[in-house]
Design goal:
Layout: H1 2-14, H2 21-29, E1 38-42, H3 46-52, H4 57-78, E2 82-89, H5 97-120, E3 124-128, H6 136-149, E4 156-163, H7 165-181, H8 192-196, E5 209-212, E6 231-234, H9 244-256
Parallel strand pairs: 1-2, 1-5, 2-4, 3-4, 5-6
Helix pairs in contact: 1-4, 2-9, 3-4, 4-5, 5-6
This protein binds ligand V0D.
The site of ligand V0D has 21 residues, from helix 4, strand 2, helix 5, strand 3 and helix 6.
Length: 265
């Protein structure tokens, strides 16, 4: 963790913003023993960011990829264990065909530009969501990531792709009914823990913190089951403008909130 702190300060000096007292104050105030294990983010506002500048929506998605790079770095430096980024929802198929086609090529582009750094940082890349409707070339990029990073033990970076929480819950129910019919699951074994084993997120801890950018104060079908006890943090900032400083602010706010579960209140 001390290494993480050093890296943050080093990065700070390299980008020549030592006079930015806000930022260094935020870093100094972070409690390194209370870093959230799992942070999930709804990366909203790329299209709006572009429209505001008279640019095509795809320019917003491209700018959003730069933010992904920056946030992955800082999350890794802080020692966060799991980062889940909502990159394509089950509803996003309704967007114009050209936009969908463009988005589906981003995993390969991200692979080409990032695989080297991700490997050097010991980051493991995975996806959550339904693989079935995704184009072959998109799945092949994701599978390349999986294959080349499967032994990595550092930050787990998940992309929620073709993900929708209600359909995930139905997928879990189907899985349970199938196991029950096959004699592998008994009705008295149905509880919160066994149910969670049938979700796409079966191998992940629940998010401690969920961040949504760009002003909407909604969950929008993202991790309905998993966010039951999570801290929720919203900002007006659009995803392409969401920088390291905003992320550190979210972590600091998370640490300020006392985490009391319903039972303790
Ligand atoms: C566009 C802003 C990385 C949000 C970020 C297909 C919208 C950039 C990925 C990615 C997207 C996905 C899987 C993977 C590696 C990278 C990505 C999509 C959109 C939707 F294994 N950025 N990104 N995927 N955007």
């Amino acid at each position: 963790m001390l290494e993480a702190l050093k890296r943050l300060f080093r990065g700070h000096q390299e980008i020549g913003v030592t006079s930015d007292t806000d930022r260094s104050e935020t870093i100094k105030q972070l409690k390194f023993g209370q870093i959230p294990k799992h942070v999930a983010i709804i990366m909203d506002g790329n299209g709006r960011w572009a429209a505001k500048r008279g640019l095509p929506r795809i320019a917003g998605h491209q700018a959003g990829m730069k933010t992904v790079r920056e946030i992955v770095r800082v999350a890794d430096d802080l020692g966060i264990e799991v980062l889940t980024l909502y990159s394509f929802s089950t509803e996003n198929w309704k967007r114009p065909r050209d936009e969908v086609n463009f988005l589906m090529k981003l995993p390969q582009e991200f692979f080409n530009s990032e695989i080297k750094e991700l490997k050097s940082r010991n980051i493991r890349v995975e996806m959550v969501g339904s693989e079935s409707q995704l184009p072959g070339f998109t799945m092949s990029a994701i599978n390349q990531f999986r294959e080349e990073t499967k032994e990595n033990t550092g930050l787990q970076l998940n992309f929620a792709m073709n993900y929708g929480s209600r359909s995930e819950i139905l997928y879990a129910v189907e899985g349970m009914l199938r196991d029950q019919a096959g004699g592998h699951l008994d009705i008295d074994e149905v509880n919160e823990e066994t149910f969670a084993r049938y979700l796409y997120t079966r191998d992940l801890p629940d998010p401690d913190l969920m961040i949504r950018t760009s002003g909407e104060i909604r969950i929008s079908n993202f991790m309905l089951w998993q966010l039951a006890y999570s801290e929720l943090w919203f900002t007006e900032t659009a995803w392409p403008d969401f920088k390291e400083k905003s992320f550190l602010q979210a972590i600091q706010d998370y640490q300020r909130r006392s985490r009391r579960y319903g039972a303790l209140k």
